[in-house]
Amino acid sequence: MYLIILGPPGAGKGTQAALIASKLNINHLSTGEILRNAVKNGTELGLKAKEIMEAGNLVSDEIMIGIIKEALATKEMKKGFILDGFPRTLVQAAELDRILDELGYKDIRVLNITIDDKELIKRMTGRGRKDDSKETVKQRLKVYKEQTAPVKEHYDKKSVVFDVYGIGNIDEINTKIYKILTDKSN
Ligand code: ADP
């Protein structure tokens, strides 16, 4: 199964993606995790990404596309993957279409977690992550609305999006997602 999970920051994408990946035995590819690890390890990528992330902005398309391209080209991805945090711009989405096509991946499904702004701000400021300060959260929501929300429309045009309401307990939401994914008519 080849999946993309979309939704605003704080919607629970990472949590749900990890659960789905372990349930379905597929790879969980989280660009946020990759970047946070790079920052922690002080790699070249980490040094470039640190300030950008802490300001709530996006790392360049060029860098992110390079990371994803390399990751998707590995053999282990054949068994399945869930992309979490990518694509985050229309440029990334268009490039991903091309990469998946080139690698022969078909039937990509997109989950879109929906949630309202008030709940998002409450959740994000409660996580204690470095990019979760009030100012940064505001900036991340702005960036999301301007640059990432159009990505859902990109996939809507291809009719591959399943909307999932992201408020409720983690297991309930996961059960909903799992039902959508295993429903033969989808
Ligand atoms: P959240 O889901 O809470 O927004 P992520 O862990 O997905 O957080 O991402 C954290 C940060 O990493 C983003 O705010 C951004 O700076 C950077 N980042 C992650 N993925 C991408 C991407 N595809 N393009 C650009 N920047 C990214």
Concise account of the structure shown:
With 186 residues, the protein is of the alpha/beta class.
- Counting DSSP H or I runs of 4 or more residues, the number of helices is 8
Strand count: 5
Radius of gyration: 16 Å
- What's the overall average pLDDT, rounded? 93
Order of helices and strands: EHEHHHEHEHHEH
- Tell me the domain tally: 1
CATH topology: Rossmann fold
Question: Can you list the ligands bound to this structure?
Answer: adenosine-5'-diphosphate
CATH homologous group name: P-loop containing nucleotide triphosphate hydrolases
CATH architecture: 3-Layer(aba) Sandwich
* Main β-sheet description: 5 strands, parallel
Structural write-up:
The chain is α/β, with parallel strands linked by helices and 186 residues long. It has a single domain (2-182), classed as Rossmann fold, CATH 3.40.50.300. The chain has helices at residues 13-24, 31-41, 44-54, 61-72, 90-103, 117-124, 134-156, 170-182, and strands at 2-6, 27-30, 81-84, 108-114, 161-165. Strands 2-3-1-4-5 form a 5-stranded parallel β-sheet, sandwiched between helices. Residues 9-10, 13-14, 31-32, 35, 52-53, 56-59, 64, 85-86, 88, 92, 131, 140 line the site of adenosine-5'-diphosphate.
